[in-house]
Design brief:
Length: 188
């Protein structure tokens, strides 16, 4: 099968998928618009809450501090490796071939170990961010549920799925205030 045929078959499948998605969204829209007099629908920007609330800001500051410390450390180590490499290359004509290759192999191993440790450090930092974001969401979910119950809200949609919406249906700021009242920071 030629790449052109495969591509057009894939395009057809994607087009069908998006058509079905649009039909589904249209049906949901009509269902909810007919029930609007009975149902209160609002939307919320969770990413904005995670970045703008006091607890979210404290997490971002903590992550940035660790990342900045790591970057400084990485730059120092990388500068040492560059210096070692230049010194080794300067000795290339002086050293015996076998001795040069041995020193080059040792330097390569040191660089590989450094790269592995750097990758591990980045994974660890990412895990810290994910774990603490989960903690924030665990605190946030009951706040949203309580707000929904108190205000007789039928449906809360994520803002990222909203194309156009009235600003008065956005409850993000109210939820941020409630979250800030409940918690300012986490223990990192």
């Amino acid at each position: 099968m030629s790449p052109l045929i495969v591509q057009s078959h894939l395009d057809l499948e994607l087009a069908h998928h998006f058509d079905m998605k649009n039909y589904f969204l249209a049906i949901i829209f009509f269902l909810f618009s007919s029930f609007y007099t009975y149902a209160q629908i609002v939307y919320i920007d969770v990413n904005y809450i995670l970045n703008s609330s006091e607890v979210g800001k404290s997490l971002n500051i903590y992550i940035k501090k660790i990342r900045d410390e790591n970057i400084i450390s990485y730059k120092d180590i990388e500068a040492k490796f560059i210096k070692k490499e230049k010194e080794l290359l300067a000795q290339k004509n002086i050293l015996k071939k076998k001795e040069f290759e041995e020193k080059f192999k040792i330097l390569s191993n040191e660089i590989n170990i450094y790269n592995t440790e750097k990758k591990s450090s980045l994974k660890k930092l990412n895990k810290i961010k994910i774990d603490n974001t989960k903690k924030i969401l665990e605190i946030l979910n009951p706040i949203i549920k309580n707000y929904v119950d108190k205000n007789s809200i039928s449906l809360v949609m994520p803002k990222k799925n909203i194309i156009v919406g009235k600003k008065n249906l956005d409850i993000t700021d109210e939820i941020i205030k409630l979250l800030n009242d409940k918690v300012q920071s986490l223990d990192f």
